Amino acid sequence: MVEDFGETAARNSNEATRFCMTLMAEPLELSWHHCGATSDFIGEYFSRACPKGIDANDARHSISYMLNEILENAIKFRHGGNIEIRSSLEADTFEIQIRNRIDPETARKFQGHLKSLLEREPGELLLERIEENALDPDSTGSGLGLLTLMSDYGARLGWSFASERVSEGVELTTFASLRLS
Questions:
Q1: Distance (Å, rounded) from C-alpha 107 to C-alpha 51?
Q2: Distance of alpha carbon 166 from alpha carbon 175, whole angstroms
Q3: Is the pLDDT of residue 99 over 90?
């Protein structure tokens, strides 16, 4: 069974500039310090492929930030296995798909979080979560990164959960699209 939340359709065509990478689970143990280096590399790669009229520095920052936020979640919540990153740039639209495996309980909780996230206006929810975090410094799992992407960067986000594609756990594909300026 496949269950989708948000915007999961890719818009970039086969003519787009593409880059794919797999972060192998072995022999390195994947951790957060891999996120920044990977995100910065891909941000730099695509900033050099931007068409005229797109600010390369802004593009590099925006791509790196978006990828880092989503990749951190993939590494933080993964249930073994590799992480696959597919990215593309066509005209002013950058898209990524990050695929990893999570356990069924994490999938269930995340789906509940996504339902509430997608029902509200991102900017309003972002302010609410910032206030909640200020009152409770020990809070975790606030989703500030995703809300910032949606509210401040105008990113389109989507998630696809597929349980039949992996032998253990749930395959999660996160989709993100960003217009560069």
A1: 38
A2: 19
A3: yes
